[in-house]
Amino acid sequence: MLGYAENPRTEKFDPPGSQTLNKRHVRPVIERWLRPETVAEGFAALGAYWDRLLGTLRVTTPDADTDRMVNIWNAYQCVVTFNMSRSASFYESGIGRGMGFRDSNQDLLGFVHMIPDRARQRILDIAATQMATGGAYHQYQPLTKRGNNDIGEGFNDDPLWLVLGVSAYVKETGDQTILDEPVPFDNVPGSEVSLYEHLRRSVTYTQERLGPHGLPLIGRADWNDCLNLNCFSDTPGEPFQTTENASGGGAESVFIAGQFVLAAKELAAIAELRGRDEEAAGYRAAAEKMTAVIIEHGWDGAWFRRAYDFHGHPVGSSENDEGQIFIEPQGMCVLGGVGLDDGLAVRALGSVAERLATPHGIILQQPAYSDYRIELGEISSYPPGYKENAGIFCHTNPWIMIAEAMVGHGDRAFDYYRSINPSAREAISEVHRCEPYVYAQMIAGRDAPTHGEAKNSWLTGTAAWNFVAITQWILGIRPELAGLRVDPVLPAAWSGFRATREFRSATYEITVRKAAGVSGRVAYLVVDGERIDGTVVPPAPAGAVVAVEAVIEQ
């Protein structure tokens, strides 16, 4: 039995003045929990709590490993990562790291449907650490809720994640009041503006920091903290993310460019929802402009480039001898809609399948770096096949799953999903060597001597993104501002599935039907016996039970 109790400062010792801790307040608690009937009641209450929480979404599919992860373990891991971010792990202790600005916004993507009130408060806490420029501390301390000065700012993808986190919350709950909440900058009293203004400054931050090609400046790093294009570290043991960066360079990120397109479109939809049509049009125009820049300067001929370094040389290009193709921009650019209309998305995803996909997941980049590249930073300091140097960084794999679903490739999307599904990997546990019920941060890539071995489990954005990929895009049950979309992209072999989804205080009982071998999209929905156009089910009154049937035809 493990417990915790606090004594008032004036009652720390018993008797007063002694060095004997006062146990008077905790003894009744111990005595209560030594009774078998109390333990039985508590255990039953704990089970009921998790049943309620995990019951927000329940699925029955033809794949047992999918059911096991979606219904229990993936959702459970999303709760754990939401609670702890990366502030505790095998290699961290004390208050040295804190909660990530980027990490926490992504973690709530897989959590918001379970306890939206807590997600709301987390968003406000995160936003309060943002700076008036629109920039953000990379991390903040959960106890003080203040930015971590030791790490600082300058990770130029960070602000855009706030837009995506808030968008997910509003889509899930329909709660627009959060957008009017007064939130300070850097927790300075008197600096409060609306959360909506914070989102506007997040987008402006990127627009005001563009490089020579018109792509966003990368700063210290973007999502990949180990791609340090402005660092030039030649001192052993020097921390790449906190060392003084070289001045005068224009290192740019194609990844942030794709993320900007996605965030600008999401903010445009929020602006339109609030009747700010002129602003919405401006954000959509900004997204179109950045899309054109990506196609002109970010497209390499068969995939999206990763970046331009300090000297203006391409990274993630066929021009490079190593690190020719990276996974991140292939996922994020397609998520933003880049290349969907002109075939570039399909071509980029084909390059991923050809060059990066393995039976154990999708590798971060290829070929691996074989020596240290001072102009690239930490990414080239790892052994080939591990971590960011051509490891299977599981966090990025769901972006490709979602992208494949967006282009209608159900079989490939689901194959990628199963390749890193911990439950499915239990059959190769002698290779996987990690818990068969929890996602790991990485799996060793094909260049590693331990290809397929996982490590750094539990605290990883892999949890939230895989939950989003399987539930919202492959199974296709996706919250949107206008209601609940039901638009699955399933493997051809499936004959459908069933799901129960709580959404905005109503319950949706969903049945998806299709013939085995069919690979099409939803032809029509039947909602409470009435056929409707499109795939969005309008929000129902609180307490309602809505029957939804989705029919997929060739």
Please tell me how large the radius of gyration is: 24 Å
Q: How many DSSP helices?
A: 15
Numbering strands along the chain, what is their spatial order in the largest sheet? 1-19-20-24-21-22
**Residue windows where pLDDT falls under 50 for at least 5 positions:** none
**What would you call the shape?**
globular
By DSSP, the count of extended strands is: 24
Gap from first CA to last CA:
58 Å
For the sheet with most strands, the description reads:
6 strands, mixed
**Overall pLDDT:** 95
Proportion of residues in β-strands: 5-15%
Query: How helical, in percent, are the residues?
Result: 25-40%
Structural class: alpha+beta
Q: Care to describe what's here?
A:
The chain is α+β, with helices and mostly antiparallel strands and about 550 residues long. Helices cover about 35% and strands about 15% of the residues. The protein has a six-stranded mixed sheet. Helix 6 (about 160-175) packs parallel to helix 8 (about 255-275) and helix 7 runs antiparallel to helix 8. The termini are far apart.
